Amino acid sequence: MHRSTFRVRYGDTDRMGVVYYGTYADYFTVGRTEWMRDKEVPYREAFEERGLLLPVRRMSCRYLLPLHFDDALTVETWIADLRPTRLVFCYRVLAPTGALAAEGDTEHAFWDEEKQAPVNLAKHRPELWALLQAAADVFGADKRD
What we know:
With 145 residues, the chain is α+β, with helices and mostly antiparallel strands. The chain has 5 helices and 8 strands, in the order βααβββββββααα. The protein has a 5-stranded antiparallel beta sheet with strand order 1-4-5-6-3. Strands 2-7-8 form a 3-stranded antiparallel beta sheet, with no helix packed on it.
C-alpha cells in the first residue's frame, strides 16, 4: 500500500465549502500515480512510452465525511486485483483526524495505443507484466499494513 498526503486546494471545493464529489477522481489519480512511482513502475516510462495506456473502465466512490479547503488528506492506494487484461486499484481517503472520508476503486484495461485495442499484458509485454506483478505484491497482497 502507498500513502500520499497533500492539502485540499480551494478549487477542489464547491459552493458549500466541501470537496466537490468529482474531485475524488483526481485524488484517486494522484494515489495511483504515486503508487506506481513508489513501486518503480512510473506510468509514463512503463506504459505511455511503450505505446500502452491504462484507460479507466469503471470507477466507484463512497463518500463518508466531508473534507474542506486546506485539510491535509491522505490517499491510501493498493492493487486489489491484477489480471493479464486489467487491474483494479483501491483507495481510501483519510481526513486529517485519520477517519475514513471516502473509499473507492478504479478498474483499468491494458490498452495498445497503436492498435486501439485491449491487450493481454502477460503476452504482449511479459517484462512489464512481471514488473507489475512484483510491484503489486502478487494480486493485492500489499493491501494493508
